[in-house]
Amino acid sequence: MSKEAEAIRVDKELDLSNAGRGVWLVKVPKYIANKWEKAPGNIEVGKLKISKQVGQKAQVSLTLSDAVINIDPAEEIPRDHRLDVSVVTKQTLGVFSHAVTTTRDDPVPECEKQYMEGRIVQKLECRPYADHCYMKMKLESIRKASQPARQVKSLEKIVHNYKPVSDHKHNIEDRERKKAEGKKSRDDKNAVLDMLFNAFEKHQYYNIKDLVRITRQPISYLKEILKEVCDYNMKNPHKNMWELKKEYRHYKEDDKKDDDTPKDTMSDSDSD
C-alpha cells in the first residue's frame, strides 16, 4: 500500500478524543427551528439559563433573542420557553460530525475526518409558556388548519380556462371521412376503369382526391385499380399525381399525329 493511500485511511478513522464529553439533546418546536434556519450564522439566537436550588432539579429556560424574533415580524412567536429535562439511562446515544478540509490552491478535498463530539447524557424538550402570545399563535394555526382547501368565490368577470383538447377537429374529420368511405359500395371493376379512362381522355394527370370525387369509390379500392393501369409520379413537375401507363394512353391529341413510331415515342416521353 502506498504512503498516500495509507494517509487517507488514517484520516478516515473516527476521532474519539471527545468521546467522554457529555452533551444535551434538545427538541425545539417547529416554529423555533424555522426561525433558526432563516437566521444568519453571525447573530445570537437565544440565551440559555440554568438555575438550581438545593434538593430540587435544575430549572432550564430559553429566551430567544430580538434578532430571531424580528426575522419575520408578521409571524409572532413566544420569546420565553422552559426546557423539561430527562436523564438518559437505558440508551447509549452519541453525536458525530464529519469534516472535509481543502487547500486554497486545490479545491479538491484532500482530507476527510470523522469525529465523535460527545455522548448524550440528557434529553430536553423545549415548551412555551401558555401566555397571551402563545395562545394567539395557536388560535391562528387552528384557524388556518380549519380553512378548506377549496373555496367557492364569486367572479366579477369571465375567466378564460384553456383545457387541453383530447381530440382535435382534424382527427374527428379524418375518422368521419374514413367511416364514410368504408360505407361506399364498390362498383364493378370494369365500370370503374371506364370512368378512369374517360377522365384521362380529358386530362393527363390527376391527384387521388379528384379521382375519388370522379369515381365515388373507396380510396383503398381505387388505388388497387390505379396501380394496374396507372403510374404514380414521384418527381416534379407532376409529383404525387397519377397518369395512365404507356400501354393505355390513347389521348385525343395523339389521333391527330402520324403513326410513325419515332413520333409516338417522342410524344410518350413528353407526356411523362
Reconstruct the topology from this structure.
Elements: H1 3-11, E1 14-15, E2 22-27, H2 30-38, E3 46-51, E4 59-64, H3 66-69, E5 80-87, E6 94-101, E7 111-128, H4 132-146, H5 169-183, H6 189-202, H7 208-215, H8 219-229, E8 230-232, E9 242-244, H9 252-255, H10 261-271
Parallel strand pairs: 1-7, 2-7
Antiparallel strand pairs: 3-4, 4-5, 5-7, 6-7, 8-9
Pfam family, one: TFIIF_beta
Domain TFIIF beta subunit N-terminal: 21-99
GO biological process, one term: transcription elongation by RNA polymerase II
How would you concisely characterize the structure shown here?
It is built from ten helices and nine strands. The protein has helices at about 5-10, 30-40, 65-70, 130-145, 170-185, 190-200, 210-215, 220-230, 250-255, 260-270; strands spanning about 15, 20-25, 45-50, 60-65, 80-85, 95-100, 110-130, 230, 240-245.
Q: Please, could you describe this protein's structure?
A:
The protein is of the alpha+beta class and 272 residues long. It folds into two domains: 131 residues, no CATH class; 66 residues, Orthogonal Bundle (Arc Repressor Mutant, subunit A), CATH 1.10.10.10. Helix content is 37%, strand content 22%. The chain contains ten helices and nine strands. The strands form two sheets. Strands 1, 2, 3, 4, 5, 6 and 7 form a seven-stranded mixed sheet that branches. A hairpin with a 7-residue loop joins strand 3 and strand 4. It is elongated and about 125 Å long. The N terminus and C terminus are likely disordered. InterPro entries: TFIIF_beta (IPR003196), TFIIF_beta_HTH (IPR040450), TFIIF_beta_N (IPR040504), TFIIF_interaction (IPR011039), WH-like_DNA-bd_sf (IPR036388), WH_DNA-bd_sf (IPR036390). TFIIF is a general transcription initiation factor that binds to RNA polymerase II and helps to recruit it to the initiation complex in collaboration with TFIIB. Pfam families: TFIIF_beta (PF02270), TFIIF_beta_N (PF17683). Keywords: DNA-binding, Nucleus, Transcription, Transcription regulation. This is General transcription factor IIF subunit 2.
